[in-house]
Amino acid sequence: MNTEASPIKVMLVDDEDGFTTLTKMNLERSGKFVVAVENDPVNAAERARHLLPHIIVLDLVMPGMDGGDVAAQIRATPELSNVKIIILTALVSQEEDEASTIPIGGKNFRSLSKPVKIERLEAAICEELGIA
Amino acid sequence: MEEFDHREKPAPNPVDTGNKGLFDPDDAVTRRIIDSLPVAIFGKDASDAFRFVVWNKKQTELTGITRDQAIGKTDFDIFPTDEAEGFRKADLGAIEHGEPVEIPEERIDSPINGVIWLKTLKTTVQDSRKNRRWLLGISEDITAQKTAADKLHRTAEELKATQLQLIQAEKMESIGRLAAGVAHEVKNPLSHISMGLDYLKGGVKSDDPNLPVVVGEMSDALERANSIVQGLLDFSGNRSLDLVGSDLASVVDRGLRLVRYEIARSKVQVDIAVGDDLPEVLLDSSKFEQVLVNVFTNALHAMEACDIQESAHRIEISLENATVDFETPEEGERGCRRLKSGEKAVALRVTDTGCGFPKADAEKAFDPFFTTKKTGDGTGLGLSVVQKIIILHGGHISLGPRKDSLRGAEVLILLRPVCITKN
Known about the structure:
Chain A has 132 residues and is of the alpha/beta class. Chain A has helices spanning 17-29, 41-51, 67-76, 94-99, 118-129, and strands spanning 8-13, 33-38, 55-58, 84-89, 101-104, 107-113. Chain A has one domain (8-121): Rossmann fold, CATH 3.40.50. In chain A, α1 (17-29) links the parallel β1 and β2 (33-38). Chain A is globular, with a radius of gyration of 13 Å. Chain A starts with 7 loop residues before the first strand and ends with a helix. In chain B, a hairpin with a 5-residue loop joins β1 and β2. Chain B starts with 27 loop residues before the first helix and ends in an 8-residue tail after the last strand. Chains A and B meet through α1 of A and α6, α7 and α9 of B.
């Protein structure tokens, strides 16, 4: 687990490279986070196994493999079985966002709806990781 | 000097007034003959201001004007001025050219019968001096045929309007089904813009190296969101049929974009093959996109309902030049002339890897309200409307098993490179 001394390692999995570019810029600006971006969901689980991020921010609707399958692969990887996952998707309405979790494969994952304010994303990451 | 001849001399020849050559309409036999005819007969004297000299019984029946009221009068004395002007113009034309003139339909406002329609032939009769002296007219009452033809035309127009309304209604239904997908598609570029704004709000220096990237991404996202919304507006609008030369491959591409979300969700692979030298086809792009949305959505649903490994599912789309190898029925007044056997066409083929379409269902697939989906899941109007749109384009659509005999269904659409309307 990170401390205030070392930045939080975030892995951002989303096929929209414009979104991942801008989100990475925003998250890394404060120095609190360092972000690895993966735009191809097929590679996400394997890449995560190498990076060992503290948290994965995962889109749902992606070509080739959707976020649900990526989450399942991550959970099935022993090194990643306990990594936190936040679902960030345009599928979720603002109302559903209020409910805060989305069930995938029998497990509930924290969810946020796009578009999302960077402060909200930062707060959600910190809450999931139990840090201020 | 000639000898004076006291023998009774024959009466001198009457002055040749030119009247010889026209039968005497006052002759009883003549009158009985022309009165017995089932067509209206009239005659006018061109040398006497086109006054009527012949007027038979049928002419009286049709116009309500008696012989006594007509003989010696002109058109202007017995008909409304606008009608009389038309008659006079035709009379002058016939006299001038000497050729029979056919007036396929002329309107008479009869005091007894109301508005009647006549088909009239006007011809000239020469006098003994070979002058075109008389105008002879023969009229047939075509009121019943004209009324029926007008009614048929109105019915055809109403039918076409109803068809277009039905097409529009089905389109609205499609838009409803697409709404979730479109919302998702628009939210993505909106989230780019939101992230970009968040970065800018955090304060940027003018020499911030990220600034061009941020502004560029936001700009691209804005264009993308606009094009998604515009695509939906274009799809939803345009009630009338608006045929323009179009690149079919581009239209197919736009159709795929409308269902991009559904395709992404279903994890179906989509392959497109475009043949060489495809001609433009005359398309109402908006309506044809409606066809494509329907066909692609049906394919996706068919594969979803088919219990095989998801990763095996694919949609294959091909566009190629083709030759029609069957007869299609002639369309009526409404549509374009339909394709004929041997004609060149552009073929759009869409195949899926679902469980296929039984032949019995394929024959009924285009019937309104026929559906293989469960109750409440679609009205079944989609393919009947799709077929109507294709017919309006002068094309042909069929649905059945895949031509390559693999599992799944195939939709074949044939389109004319040029559409020739009946009018």
